[in-house]
Protein 1
Amino acid sequence: MDLQPTLDTERLVLRPLEEADREPLFAVASDPMVWEQHPIHDRWRREVFDPFFDQGLASGGALTVIRKSDDSIIGSTRYTAYDPEDEDGGSVEIGYTFLKRACWGKGLNPEMKRAMLVHAFAHVGTVRFRVGDTNHRSRYALEAIGAHRTAEYDLDRYQGRRVVHLIYAMAREDFDPG
């Protein structure tokens, strides 16, 4: 599976993340409200954003989200943890998604996720999503596209505090590309 495809939807283009995207994405990420419910709630700060961006570049799966109507960069997302030998036909994780606040509630996130799911399900049987337990916006968005919370979770620490990530999943047979 190509973890950095170019995906084209009605209103968006998702393409591989490039170094030149750092400043436009920081402009999006520098809004503290974008990270308000996220476990890494201070990713709006330059010294927190830059390592996150570097990790995305190094991951080989990060995508830049571009709105076609004005050719502007409005966010980023990522494929990670591809496991082609998984017993359920292989799996990949979609995550690390953030969008410009002005784009919230416009149907862009489901449009983007649908394109990513179509691409993923051409290669794997399961797509997983890892989301902070207090990130209710993201949890609701995942449930709205048909992902189901599993019994799995991941524990981590950030700034000395415990962080709980819930694992959501969707199987190929449960996906309706609409």
Protein 2
Amino acid sequence: MSFVKVAKTGDISPGTMKHVEIAGKELCIANVGGKFYAIGDRCGHENASLARGKLEGTHVVCPMHASKFDVTTGKKVAGPVLELAGIAKKFSGCPEPVRKEMGAMFEGIAAAQSSIKTYDVPSYDVKTEGMDILVNV
């Protein structure tokens, strides 16, 4: 393993993330108050890009099912969220048979999703040299 340049410090504003691909790996580079962190960019639940999610302090929230991972360690801290509260309202204007079918479909999806394990994501050492962000891949 060796440190490889992945971005410039100005490319990633505080409170944001960036997807990069380097050395055959997909990384999510996060800027938390001017300090940079790197974790694997694929959610340990269903493979969504974490860099497309939200950064809340040191936690990245997956855009797909809201699993949360600590960008300092890669550890899962919450999720996924599989609740379907409010989904029925989206179909309130549909005929009753359609509402029933959609309700059954979403219940089935939630049941199937609940059995999928969510794994931690890898974390990588990061350093800056001047304006360059380097990650140990």
Protein 3
Amino acid sequence: MHGERHHSPAAERNGPPIGAALQRLLPDRGLLLEIASGTGQHAAFLSEALPGWQWQPSDVQAAALPSIMAWCEGLERVRPPLLLDVLDESWPGVAAQLDAIYCANMIHIAPWACTAGLMQGAARYLAPSGLLITYGPYLLDDEPTAPSNLAFDADLRARNPAWGIRRLTAVAGLAASAGLQLRECIDMPANNKLLVFAPNHPPG
């Protein structure tokens, strides 16, 4: 064992619906970078749901890496986790071209600059046909916010004023400025959304 498996009840609950969505969205094979892998549960579960894919976990916190390794021990298609900060100009250890980037529950528990870093990095590393897929709660202009998300947002901002649930239009705007287009917004359980972005290539 590499270390102690940390456990997130939310990751256990949302793994199956996210896995089903990824199976629909992604081709049969490729290389996926997971940003902010956290406990490592998603890397372990979702990589099993995508048998043709190589999975590259990562996290900004060195303390997270032993748990990721523990969850993914023995999984041949899961690579050793990388220490990765989305704010860095380059992402050491990341392949030059990725078929997908997956990021769950980071955008609201990180300063806004990290969302910009995620979008800019995705634009640098995604293959022309690649996808950036983000999961979490978002505020929508045309939908009332669920009371649970309002309470969650208030709690996040109390813990750190730089955190908070982001407006979907603002996230899509940052993506657009980096050269990514919002292709899909998928409703998920517990008032979460799965957002699908793709490189916005000029015609011709």
